[in-house]
Specification:
The protein is built from four helices and 19 strands. It is of the alpha+beta class.
């Protein structure tokens, strides 16, 4: 039986070949495959050489476009950080701002921007806290954070040089200008804003010297409030892309009289080279204060921040015609003092001064920003 089936199958296949031709043969549909041919070493080297040649020719053409795109992204990041601080102040009903950290080896440049907040004023350890002021002479007096009702110690380690203090909810502000966190306690210096400092020779850290009217004499107790400087918030800081910085040498506040380059955050650093530049907004969204060189300044005009390239910092250039102020790819980030509006604008191409270069940023402010 098996032999008969085998003969029938062979006969059937033969009839199919006779009827439909060799194309229907299983063997005809699967011709033998030839071995795959690879690339030779010479061919691979030629391809690599072509790729390298094309890359070398195109990279210089693409790099300016990449630099410009990176600068625009840095400008967007900086303006967004200022706008975020303004939103924080509006949402929380208390002052907030941006902390511009100076680079360790380049104090005229900033890459890291932190959101910061202004702590509540310190008014003592209890509701009955008062300071004792004792007149020492025609213009000086000693101050102690203690009275007949209280003896405050919470301020020690909390306050720092640059904080402001005010007595009896009125009168002038005084600034802490000496060590307040020294261990063991050392002298504390207090000075009235825009005046020379008055120092105290006592080693009691709770003593400070202030300026008092000549007619004042004796000793009295009075409430006090210490207005502390901003502190970094817990938010993740913003870091500009590698190679980009905020050039503090040309950044500044309009109307600010500083030696060297006019209106600049990058001059007169001396021993304050590591201190940050801090900008704060009040609860209405307006610019509130500027902290520079460890001193609080009132806002007298628009703020300008130049977003540029690290390798074009003025401190690294022997020829100022090739620094960030002359690079037309760079951007100004400007903040309006009344509205807090943050805008960006290109660096002026034909400007011969800082003020002239800021003209575009000023124009952008007047047109409502962008």
């Amino acid at each position: 039986m098996n032999q008969a089936r085998k003969q029938w199958s062979v006969a059937g296949n033969q009839q199919s070949l006779d009827r439909f031709g060799p194309a229907c043969s299983p063997i005809a549909n699967h011709p033998p495959q030839s071995a795959a041919r690879g690339f030779t070493l010479t061919e691979l080297l030629i391809v690599v050489a072509i790729i390298v040649t094309v890359s070398v020719a195109t990279v210089p053409l693409v790099k300016p476009s990449l630099d410009s795109r990176r600068i625009r992204e840095s400008g967007r990041m900086a303006s967004t950080q200022f706008a975020s601080a303004q939103s924080e102040a509006l949402a929380n009903g208390r002052s907030a701002g941006v902390w511009l950290e100076r680079m360790l080896n380049e104090p005229t440049a900033c890459m890291d921007m932190f959101l910061c907040e202004v702590p509540l004023p310190y008014a003592g350890d209890s509701e009955t806290s008062k300071a004792t002021i004792t007149a020492l002479g025609p213009t000086n007096a000693s101050v102690k954070f203690q009275s007949s009702a209280s003896s405050d110690i919470g301020w020690y380690g909390l306050l720092k040089p640059g904080d402001l203090i005010r007595f009896n909810y009125s009168g002038p502000y005084y600034q802490l200008g000496g060590p307040t966190q020294q261990d063991p306690p050392g002298n504390v210096v207090l000075k009235e804003l825009n005046t020379t400092a008055f120092t105290l020779t006592s080693t009691n850290a709770a003593d400070m010297t202030i300026h008092v009217p000549p007619s004042v004499s004796g000793s009295w107790e009075t409430p006090y409030q210490v207005y502390r400087q901003p502190v970094k918030a817990s938010h993740t800081p913003v870091q500009l892309p590698a190679g980009d910085v905020i050039d503090l040498y040309y950044s500044g506040m309009s109307g600010m009289a500083i030696s060297g380059v006019s209106d600049s955050f990058g001059n007169s650093l001396s021993s304050n080279a590591s201190l940050p530049v801090i900008v704060t907004f009040d609860q209405t969204g307006e610019l509130e204060s500027l902290y520079y060189n460890g001193t609080k300044h009132s806002i007298t005009g628009p703020l300008y921040f130049l977003v540029g390239k690290r390798d074009k910092l003025a401190s690294l250039q022997t020829d100022t015609s090739n620094d960030n102020l002359t690079d037309m790819e760079n951007l100004w980030v400007a903040i309006n003092p009344q509205t807090g509006l943050v805008t960006t604008a290109e660096v002026a191409s034909s400007a011969s001064s800082v003020q002239g270069s800021r003209a575009f940023a000023t124009s952008a402010q007047s047109m409502g920003g962008r």
